[in-house]
Amino acid sequence: MVVGVPELGLLLEWQTIKLQLQPICPIEGRSGSHISEQIPLRTLQFQRGLLHELRKGNAMMEQIRLHNLVQQLPQAIIIGVRKGGTRALLEMLNLHPAVVKASQEVHFFDNDPNYAKGIEWYRGKMPFSHPHQITIEKSPAYFITEEVPERIFKMNSSIKLLLIVREPTTRAVSDYTQVLEGKERKNKTYYKFEKLAIDPNTCEVNTKYKAVRTSIYTKHLEKWLKYFPVEQFHVVDGDRLITDPLPELQLVEQFLNLPPRISQFNLYFNATRGFYCLRFNIVFNKCLAGSKGRIHPDVDPSVVTKLRKFFHPFNQKFYQIIGRTFNWP
Fold this sequence. Notes:
It is a single-pass type II membrane protein. This protein is α/β, with parallel strands linked by helices and about 325 residues long. The chain has helices at about 5-20, 40-55, 60-65, 85-95, 110-115, 120-125, 150-155, 170-185, 195, 210-215, 215-225, 240-245, 245-255, 300-320; strands spanning about 25, 40, 70, 75-80, 100, 130, 135-140, 160-165, 235, 265-270, 275-280, 285.
């Protein structure tokens, strides 16, 4: 492919930037020790622009070789949970110059036809990156899909696994709300949350309802622990990520052995949206899609109470396994 004027300008800009590099970002190896080769932060930030050109198909193989870019299998995966804040977590981690993200949910390990295409197909879905950057993908269905833990283990038994959770009843209602919105867009009717979450025959919590079943975190995590030690998991507080994201992101940086680079400068509260937005630099800001933060329907308080009572013992066991507690009723 012929390099056009914009790409030549990009390369010239790169030559200028190389002369001005100052901050150094030491990237930690998988074992946790610092790799001797260091990557200048400005280099990583510049490469984001180049990676954008690659995605658009505007870069040549010479550029890929020049900047030593590769498509890596992910070193960390956000495995779930659905409606826990997986997209927000991925986008916020992408603020770190040593992190690159797969923009779309790949659904490799939870989709049999995709899995049958093989690991190189999966690699081809990953973004281009510097060899010492961390590639992260997220597919929330991984957490609750039976075959996924073994499949990921076969790919990389030492991979780091991120799980973001919210208060189980709130998450279940959020799950319902997303499905409800989809039905309404198609002018279809849908049951009320109360009718789905409570079995009308027994008046007990309906564990066959997927939104309820997904919120029993300990049941799903136990299946993962057959393949991975608990030390390879980091559980993010999805409720806190909404209200005070920086401490949660700093914990993830530590878990991924990344030097601290995400700061309060990168996060600003948008009063109109009611959520934190992202500031990559002085000119580029980004807010999550408008579909995030849907207004939940009112739910019968007695149903909320019944659900919270149902989830309570599962939550206690979950806390014991992960070594962390949350402010859930």
